[in-house]
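Example record used in the benchmark description.
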Amino acid sequence: MKKWMWLVLSLIGLSQISLWAQAEDRKIKVFAAASLTDVMNVLAKQYTQQTGVQVVPVYGGSGTLAKQLEQGAPGDLFISADEKWMQYLKDKQLVQVSTIKPWLGNRLVMITPQAKPLSIKAEAVTDIGQQAPGYWCTGDTLSVPVGIYAKQSLTSLGWWDKLKNRLVSTQDVRATLNLVERDECDVGIVYASDAQSSGKVKVAGEFAENSHVPIVYPIAVLPQASAETTAFYRYLQSEEARKLLVSYGFKPLFND
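Model output (structure tokens):
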């Protein structure tokens, strides 16, 4: 009797382990740029409701995420806010090269706290020291895509030398947005999609697209991707995803 019970319990245990393993296989871990937080949360929720496959986003600065993947962090999909960090992982042979595609575009804007609005013309003739004398903030200009784009625009306008000593660096674009929302920074440089996501900031001005390299969010499947990843990768390039991405201020670059 005891042996029979032990056998039944063992089989139940093995069955449970199998179910857990299947559930784990049906998870998709997405390493995504911080600026995608709001829209990716919605996309992930919709996809899970439709398919039963759980999407687990991991957000951060693109450089930080790329370094984590290089150090062995498990993941299925990588979405960078610039092409530099995608190229970095490509050079390390840490993405499936055939899956690298430009996914989204964006715009670069200046924001202020809602209670302290400004109007700043992104022109070389603007006396930026007089018009916006306080602290500015954006992503780290060496490693965070929004900061890299920002430095290019500030340099193009001849503003860099005037602002660099009062420019606060952040770990990602959402940290910049938070500083401005809390009125801890007078002017922030973020993506248009981030400005749109917040009711606590005002857009002060927009940088011309030719003042920086094109803002491109590339997407790629990682080498150890789960079996469910390809389907989600395709879903992110569907018409359903396109409509949602546009509503959040992004510019889809894919053809579904």
